[in-house]
Write a structure and sequence with these properties.
Blueprint lengths: L1 H21 L5 E9 L3 E2 L2 E2 L6 E9 L5 E10 L9 E12 L7 E11 L5 H4 L1 E9 L9 E11 L11 E14 L5 E13 L9 E11 L1 E2 L4 E12 L9 E11 L1
Antiparallel strand pairs: 1-4, 1-15, 2-3, 4-5, 5-6, 6-7, 7-8, 8-9, 9-10, 10-11, 11-12, 12-14, 13-14, 14-15
Amino acid sequence: MKKEILLTTAVLLGTAALVYAEEAKELSVTYDVTYMSKLLDKGGNYYGSKSAFLSTAEIDLWGTGFGLALWHRRPNSSGFENRERLSFKAYYYDSVFEDETYKMDYKFNWLYHNFPDQPKNAGNYNEMELAVSWPELFPGGLVPSYAVVYEHPAGSRYGNRNSAGWYHQFGLGYDLTVPELSNQVLHLSAAVAYRDGLGGGPVDHDWSHATFGVSMGFKINSKLTFTPGLYHQVSMDDSVNEHDETYSVFSLTYRF
């Protein structure tokens, strides 16, 4: 798996270098630290009622559309050490139909997830995601989106070999300008998800949950942004989550 990661990284860097030779754009680096009062991932509550920190270092490769990221998440309480996770991500994003109302933004992510406190053949897995949105489709700023995810174990004989499956999410987003707050933008979001085999036998093939959220980014300076958010998940399938969940998210993002 390490060889595959190194090869993927080399290909991305090589492609980006060729484009960079023609277009002298700057390398963009972002570091983000996020606190979540509960860690919800594809409907599941992974650390119970405990909070978690997520940190991400991301490199956007000279505006080529290619990028790399290293992502770490850990619980803030004991008892979940085996579920601490370190992830490597490679991605590509672009837009098509630029001059049309059906302009589509898309992003493809490939991730490798590693659990440092577990044997690598116990739970490590790959994740592939395609996320698309249509920012010009509706008047007034309403933006529909869709994401499809496929997860599968990193090896054929791994302990999680029966948990492979698909995940679909349909969403709507809307940015509301608030004049009373110096024209700050309030981001409203709603999404509904269908789990199709992801998680293995115990998890149903069914609509799993819907999530509603509100967040607002505050620029501290030209490079630093603080974004608080509040979210509520309506759980619809007990095999994924038996309870509705309300949680807060606080992110601090620095762009070099």
